[in-house]
Design a protein that fits this description.
about 290 residues, alpha+beta, Jelly Rolls, Arc Repressor Mutant, subunit A, 2 domains, 8 strands, about 20% strand
Amino acid sequence: MKDRGKMESAEYHETKIHGQREFPFNIYPCSIPGDFKNVALHWHEEMEILSIKKGHGRVTVDRVEYEVEEGDIMGIFPGQLHSICGVGEQRMDYENIIFRLSLLMGGEEDLCTGYLLWPLVKEQMKAPLFRRRGMADYGEFERCIAFLDRVSEQRKTGYQLAVKGQLYEFMYQVFQAGIPLQEKRPGKARERIKQVLGYIEEHYGEPLDTGQAAGLCFYSQSHFMKYFKQYTGQSFVNFLNDYRLFRAGGFLRTTSDTVTEIAARCGFGNVSYFNRLFRRKYGMTPGEYRGGDE
């Protein structure tokens, strides 16, 4: 079930259905900067597997940066805040395998569900999975991914059974890797950053400053600025502008509204400032991005 559709999402809390509702699994080939410049900080309820095919880049998970290169495999668990970017101008091609753990879960009395999978759904994994060629169990994860690629490409009758079987195998290897579980869900720090990102998503078109965002977390403005940059790698203002520009790009592609109208809708009262930031981010004017002469 490979899908060349863009993984670019306008939501920090991604709610897109991956695959079909009755079979929430999909594989997306992606490229940075071929498909998009980067994947902004976000989270979702699904399990995500990254398989780096060519080049190298950087994946950040819960404030920890991982330099990734061809052959690397990462498993990102539900609720973990993560972002993906390239390094300099270099290209990185990777495969994104996303599925809901509910695909593997049984009823309340099922041991695997209650003892193994439910803690993952409750966001209790302390760290992502990271495997590189040469590590002792690397081959086990590599074989799982190769198998998923093959059966998803062929899509023979009943291939869903083969996918589920291989996902069970992958998760078995995850537990053999010994990634520790937290006794309870992550503390307030990660939840507060999620709250801020959700607020940006809902109110990006309105006036919004650092003081307001700090108030959402009950932090002083100075503490919030430090805390936000630790999580995102950017100042709050730069992060907000990036999101607004991302949404503006979407409106340019999907509507006939003028650049001035789109700039205002995305929180930019000054169209000249919007044009300048847009060119800096995308390397072209809004009109060129849309493909017209505006």
